[in-house]
Specification:
Layout (H helix, E strand, L loop, with lengths): L7 H13 L4 E4 L2 E2 L6 H15 L8 E4 L2 E3 L19 E5 L7 H13 L3 E4 L11 H8 L5 E5 L6 H10 L6 E4 L12 H9 L2 H18 L13
Parallel strand pairs: 1-3, 2-4, 4-5, 5-6, 6-7, 7-8
Amino acid sequence: MDDGARNVTESVAMLTVSAEQGVRTVIATPHFYRSEETISSFLQRRNEALRRLEGHIPEGMVLVPGAEVLLQKGLSRLDLRDLCIQGTSRILIELPFMPPENWIYEELENIALAQRLDVILAHVDRYMAWYSHDKIAAMMDFPGVSVQLNGEAFLESATFRALRHWLPQPKRLIFGSDMHHIDRRRPNLEEAYKALHKKALGRRWMAQAEQIGPTLLLPPQPILSLEGFL
């Protein structure tokens, strides 16, 4: 659909690798950009993509529709419920890669409070260059906000060291694979968990994510992989 898998074959390959790593539930989160299409158009494209995968999903794996929604001005004026992870009130929000402005906080507040949706901030580890510790902490203080970290953040020691000093202690933590292709940005949760297990903070984060993460997404199923592949 966007910058993920180029065809069904690549999607199935990533699902197969994920299954081999122990993943049983995958949330498909293709990008939604308010400035480029309507929600109804996006849902139609997503449903068509999911239909193409019918019959190809590894045995025992569940594929759940969702979206990665770019935060843009005016987003909170839309009814965002259909973009939530199916069967939940949780919505995956991607922050803009820019110095934070007041409208960003206003949009998040409206989504969390006015629409009463539980915001998951996508791949928070990728915002270190743009958002200060205090700025990201202010966003995490909104009711129901969770943070999602990409597996790749734990595979390089320098990145993990920077992250541990920058990220406020998360109350609600989710890990995701950020899988887009089979050769780059590939399924990597198994590698990420092995790297986390070597560090005391990593082990605490793992315990927190394993206890809280599934409940935040689709209880009682274990959710290990978040980023989309369509």
